[in-house]
């Protein structure tokens, strides 16, 4: 897949049972390479991916993305070349209001953080928010996976309102 990625990102309320709404769940591990753009390798269950993302535009709402599926073996080998700090999370897909919300529950040094993203067709697209969606963090670099591998949630969790940690 390649093209313009348009997405909005939100914190998820901790005291809501959003997992029961999920149509699927997958385990994701991803590492990052030193680069001007974001370059990552990802293992999602039994598949591998190499992704290159351009710089954020429009306050973090959109950016160019190129993604190519690779074998798990290739992904495992590329992980050995990544910078320290692997992102480890489970991703839940929740259909709601004609969209699919990707809810990431982070582990390891980012344990306790749960984020929801929704991909849009255009920057002005309206969408219905499920009740578990809270504070919008689109464009806040602290919530970029590439940032969290170097500056994990455990270091700044107290800066997030209690209902989200």
TrEMBL record:
<feature type="domain" description="CYTH">
    <location>
        <begin position="3"/>
        <end position="150"/>
    </location>
</feature>
<dbReference type="InterPro" id="IPR023577">
    <property type="entry name" value="CYTH_domain"/>
</dbReference>
<dbReference type="InterPro" id="IPR033469">
    <property type="entry name" value="CYTH-like_dom_sf"/>
</dbReference>
<dbReference type="Pfam" id="PF01928">
    <property type="entry name" value="CYTH"/>
</dbReference>
<dbReference type="InterPro" id="IPR012042">
    <property type="entry name" value="NeuTTM/CthTTM-like"/>
</dbReference>
<protein>
    <submittedName>
        <fullName>Adenylate cyclase</fullName>
    </submittedName>
</protein>
<feature type="active site" description="Proton acceptor">
    <location>
        <position position="32"/>
    </location>
</feature>
């Amino acid at each position: 897949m390649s093209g313009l990625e348009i997405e909005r990102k939100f914190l998820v309320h901790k005291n809501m049972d959003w997992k029961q709404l999920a149509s699927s769940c997958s385990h994701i591990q991803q590492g990052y390479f030193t680069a001007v753009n974001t370059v990552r390798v990802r293992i999602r269950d039994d598949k591998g991916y190499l992704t290159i993302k351009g710089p954020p535009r429009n306050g973090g709402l959109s950016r160019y993305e190129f993604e190519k599926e690779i074998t798990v073996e290739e992904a495992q080998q590329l992980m050995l070349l990544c910078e320290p700090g692997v992102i480890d999370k489970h991703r839940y897909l929740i259909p709601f209001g004609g969209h699919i919300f990707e809810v990431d529950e982070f582990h390891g040094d980012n344990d306790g953080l749960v984020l929801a993203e929704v991909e849009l067709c255009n920057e002005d697209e309206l969408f219905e928010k499920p009740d578990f969606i809270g504070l919008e963090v689109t464009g806040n670099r602290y919530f970029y996976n590439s940032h969290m591998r170097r500056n994990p949630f455990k270091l700044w969790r107290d800066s997030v309102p209690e209902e989200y940690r």
